[in-house]
């Protein structure tokens, strides 16, 4: 067989379909620049890739990309979230005349995330991360005439470039030390002994993942980027890559530490320590924020800390199901919250608490949806966020207090409970503003623009998922069977 044909044959059909969908969206935008047709093409292409994901239930593998249980769970979640992001931003992108380019960037974010989710090799991991980075940078700086958006995009590029450079430096050292690019080959080469240089290379290689997850101390760009970018864009790059990053992190940890993190105390302590620092800083700094998008930015940072705490509980099979449950609950609530905030921001011109005051008088349904998603992010029963946080808390306590458990993991469970209680104040600041504060004099008093059908559909789907996952106690068992 021709080597080129053989190489293409190793690429999963879903990734090929998504890559073709990006090209089709760009072609449609060239034919009809700025029209909604390109977004419709993007939606159809994404749904086609989703169809390939759902029908492809057989495990596949190659040196570069693998379709295992993790990928079969992460890729449909990535594509479904992308469909919601495209629907939520359809009207705003068409209004500004750049619908095709915007849809292609959202698709590029999804395509890079799919590559990361299937990566079993340093090369494909690097290429996927760069696709995610470039798309995120463009989406963050989308408002070209807004100084705040320009500053956010510049910070995203500068600090993202530094993180990418450190990641590439670590990957090159791993290859130099082991002579391998695949996760399995690297794990085999490091089986007998893990030299200090290899540990340092692993930490450097993990910087890119930490930056994309916005872990402390790589979190400082997130609040500015989220405040400056349009809400629809934030909904995309705050949720879509998370599934991929967690999937590849679990795959890498399974390969490097087949006996589990508990047998390598340094790894467990490092992960739990990063989780504790991230949850504490995000919770405390969020208390002094007075902009809803910045509050949600620090909320996302804190949730990333919870995700890393769940990673520290591996290789317990239930830990993977807990991670999947938490990611689904987080993504649904975050996507819904930013879709609601986008509608309110269009009315008031800002997402500051002062501008959002009294929004319930003009947009009662949107405000109630926003409050529902905020309560889920906080962890109020019986919503999905409560069940997800409780699952992580229980998993961390069982893992940390076991015979070979890490006391740092157990301490992380205590910090999770405390930060959840303290973070209630920052979420309630937004709830108080939109429900109980008097509307500012400059608030729009004339007829409001009708809610877009796409945005309404996104809010409805996210609300159903948030309530359904919260009332479905068997979700863990179902996800465990999939992983």
Please characterize this protein's 3D structure:
- By secondary structure, the protein is mainly α.
- The chain folds into 2 domains: 183 residues, no CATH class; 220 residues, no CATH class.
- The chain has 23 helices and 2 strands.
- It has a two-stranded antiparallel ribbon.
- The longest helix has 32 residues.
- The radius of gyration is 22 Å and the shape is globular.
How would you concisely characterize the structure shown here?
With 483 residues, this protein is mainly α. 75% of the residues lie in helices and 1% in strands. It is built from 23 helices and two strands.
Strand order in the largest sheet: 1-2
**Helix fraction by DSSP (H/I, runs of at least 4):** over 70%
Quaternary organisation of the protein chains:
single chain
The number of distinct structural domains comes to 2
- Uncertain residue ranges: 1-8
Instruction: Quote the distance from N terminus to C terminus.
Output: 34 Å
Defining key terms:
single chain; 483 residues; mainly alpha; 23 helices; 75% helix
Task: Describe the SSE topology.
Elements: H1 3-9, H2 13-31, H3 37-55, E1 60-61, E2 66-67, H4 69-88, H5 90-96, H6 99-118, H7 122-140, H8 147-178, H9 183-189, H10 196-205, H11 207-213, H12 222-228, H13 231-237, H14 240-256, H15 265-286, H16 292-311, H17 317-348, H18 353-356, H19 364-378, H20 384-400, H21 407-435, H22 453-471, H23 475-482
Antiparallel strand pairs: 1-2
Helix pairs in contact: 2-3, 2-6, 3-4, 3-6, 4-6, 4-13, 4-14, 4-17, 4-22, 5-6, 6-7, 6-14, 7-8, 8-10, 8-12, 9-14, 12-16, 13-17, 14-17, 15-16, 15-21, 16-17, 16-20, 16-21, 17-19, 17-20, 17-22, 17-23, 19-21, 19-22, 20-21, 20-22
């Amino acid at each position: 067989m021709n080597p080129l044909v053989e190489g293409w044959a190793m690429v999963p059909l879903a990734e090929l379909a998504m890559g073709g969908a990006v090209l089709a969206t760009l072609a449609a935008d060239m034919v009809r620049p700025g029209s909604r047709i390109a977004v419709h093409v993007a939606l159809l292409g994404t749904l086609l890739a989703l169809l390939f994901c759902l029908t492809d239930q057989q495990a596949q593998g190659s040196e570069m990309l693998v379709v295992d249980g993790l990928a079969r769970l992460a890729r449909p979640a990535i594509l479904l979230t992308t469909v919601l992001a495209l629907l939520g931003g359809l009207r705003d992108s068409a209004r500004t005349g750049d619908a095709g380019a915007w849809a292609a960037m959202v698709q590029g974010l999804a395509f890079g995330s799919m590559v990361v989710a299937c990566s079993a090799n340093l090369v494909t991991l690097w290429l996927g991360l760069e696709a995610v980075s470039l798309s995120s940078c463009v989406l963050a700086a989308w408002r070209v005439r807004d100084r705040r958006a320009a500053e956010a995009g510049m910070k995203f590029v500068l600090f993202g470039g530094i993180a990418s450079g450190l990641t590439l430096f670590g990957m090159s050292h791993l290859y130099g030390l082991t002579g391998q690019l695949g996760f399995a080959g690297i794990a085999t080469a490091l089986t007998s002994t893990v030299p200090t240089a290899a540990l340092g290379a692993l930490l450097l290689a993990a910087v890119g993942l930490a930056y994309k997850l916005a872990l402390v101390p790589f979190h400082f760009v997130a609040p500015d980027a989220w405040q400056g970018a349009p809400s629809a864009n934030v909904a995309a790059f705050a949720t879509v890559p998370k599934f991929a990053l967690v999937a590849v992190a679990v795959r890498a940890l399974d390969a490097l530490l087949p006996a589990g993190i508990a047998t390598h105390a340094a790894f467990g302590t490092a992960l739990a320590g990063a989780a504790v620092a991230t949850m504490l800083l995000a919770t405390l700094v969020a208390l002094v924020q007075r902009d809803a998008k910045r509050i949600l930015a620090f909320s996302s940072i804190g949730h990333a800390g919870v995700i890393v705490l769940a990673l520290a509980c591996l290789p317990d099979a239930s830990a993977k199901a807990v991670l999947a449950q938490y990611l689904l609950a987080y993504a649904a609530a975050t996507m819904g919250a930013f879709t609601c905030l986008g509608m309110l921001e269009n009315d008031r011109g800002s997402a500051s608490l002062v501008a959002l005051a009294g929004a319930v008088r003009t947009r009662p349904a949107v405000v109630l949806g926003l409050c529902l998603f905020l309560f889920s992010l906080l962890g109020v029963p019986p919503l999905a966020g409560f069940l997800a946080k409780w699952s992580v808390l229980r998993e961390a306590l069982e893992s940390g207090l076991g015979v070979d458990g890490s006391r740092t993991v157990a301490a992380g469970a205590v910090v999770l409970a405390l930060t959840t209680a303290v973070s209630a104040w920052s979420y309630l600041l937004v709830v108080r503003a939109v429900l109980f504060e008097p509307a500012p004099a400059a608030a729009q008093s004339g007829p409001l623009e009708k809610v877009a059908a796409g945005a309404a559909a996104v809010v409805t789907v996210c609300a159903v998922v948030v309530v359904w996952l919260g009332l479905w106690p068997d979700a863990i068992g179902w996800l465990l069977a999939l992983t």
